Amino acid sequence: LVRESLDHLRFPVLEAASGQAALDLLEAGADVGFVLVGLNLRGVDAQRVMNRARELRPGLPVAVLAESGQ
Q1: Which one, of 14, 4, 11, 65, lies nearest residue 38 by Cα?
Q2: What are the beta bridge partners of residue 64?
Q3: Tens of pLDDT, residues 14-52
Q4: Can you give the three-state secondary structure of 12-70, one letter per residue?
């Protein structure tokens, strides 16, 4: 639902299948203006992704999405 909403608003979206994949994108220099982290990531946890995103790009907005599974 979030992805569909962002697509509808014409925001470009990079999607990572896991916490490590998200870190890989950020560390490779992916051009992102906002990070939305799912609370229930596989592998690397959301807190580590948030911390690393802030280390790599101070001032980058980061938010956590608590997925309900519904």
Answers
A1: 65
A2: 37
A3: 888 888 999 999 999 999 989 988 888 777 888 999 999
A4: CCCCCCCHHHHHHHHHCCCCCCCEEEECCCCCCCHHHHHHHHHHHCCCCCEEEECCCCC
